[in-house]
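Suppose you are handed only two things: the residues of a chain and a line of SMILES describing flavin mononucleotide. What would the bound structure be? This form records exactly that question and the answer produced for it, so the two can be stored side by side and reused later without any lookup.

QUESTION INPUTS
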Amino acid sequence: MTGAAMGWEEVRSAAREKLLGVCSLCRVCDGRVCAGQVPGMGGVGTGTSAINNYEALRAIKLNLRTLHAATEPELSVTLFGKTLALPVLGAPVAGAKVNFQGRILEWEFTLAQVQGAREAGTLACTGDGAEPEEYAMGLKALQAVGGRGIPVIKPRPAEEILRRIRLAEDAGAVAVGIDVDAAGLMSMRRAGVAVGPLAPDVLTRICSATRLSVIVKGVMTADEARLAYECGAAGIVVSNHGGRVLDYTPGTAEVLPSVAAEVKGKLTLLADGGVRSGVDVLKFLALGADAVLVGRPAAWAAFGGGAEGVRFLYRKLAEELRAAMILTGCPSPAAAGPALLA
Ligand SMILES: Cc1cc2nc3c(=O)[nH]c(=O)nc-3n(C[C@H](O)[C@H](O)[C@H](O)COP(=O)(O)O)c2cc1C
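ANSWER OUTPUT
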């Protein structure tokens, strides 16, 4: 085992103890044991959407090639004007009270996410939820790292989204996101927070009302990817929210190629769902993503080792990605494409 992998196993064991009854940190995180555990760490309903993320990624096979000159692959990417040491960002994960049964403070959790990401040379997104502290703690954590992060806002009424974007601008955020796939979150509605779909004219208005790049998170079809682009989004995340919003969606790796065929090169194309290793990262890049987001593993990392645990995770992913790029003849993230896929 490499140094990073060893450190990572220690982080995982510490997290397993702290998350007893919340997340089993299964050897293979395939969404089965935790199916239906929302709130919690699972996928919604039967858990099929989270399971499909795992299965779709697992089904992708890579061509092994070693007769080439890619001995020192370049891992860095430039997104939204920032150069990241690796094509992996922290996904927004909010709601420590409900999802982690309050075993960590929202503040402590979010700070670990953004600090660990910054120390690894990348950046993390922060989330939003029914509790006012969820968005607020994200912004406060971003400010603690000089704004190096991306707050992701729930699809609230337009004026409220714009108010939150102003706060993100003031916090010096790199970009801002809207997780449109939370449109039907009944937990938000029950808590009195109006969320719902964003009509294209509303999205257009939002995109043109800020100097920040707007990222639409939760796109699962090529037509909506194009629509987001036409509305002025600077980026999208192909995501089904880790399988937590709608039962029976396809895995993200399944839909990414059709989305990439529609918008690759027009906007920043991100994807998430089931990334657990550097090989998974390379698979998403080969399917068309410019970079990926990692959700649950970053949560384990924060529990198991705080900011240092999160840094370990990125270090491990970077080492695995580098090895996979050498073994597939891929000199840089931008060079990853269909030729890598068997
Ligand atoms: C406990 C938990 C909380 C989450 N909170 C948010 C959130 O506030 N906003 C958001 O856009 N996505 C949220 N997500 C979804 C993640 O950002 C991401 O899309 C998903 O976890 C990626 O899949 P992965 O966990 O398999 O890496 C959450 C996911 C989990 C597991």
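WHAT STANDS OUT: The chain has one domain: 3-331. Strands lie at 77-79, 82-84, 88-90, 124-126, 149-153, 176-179, 214-219, 235-238, 268-272, 291-294.
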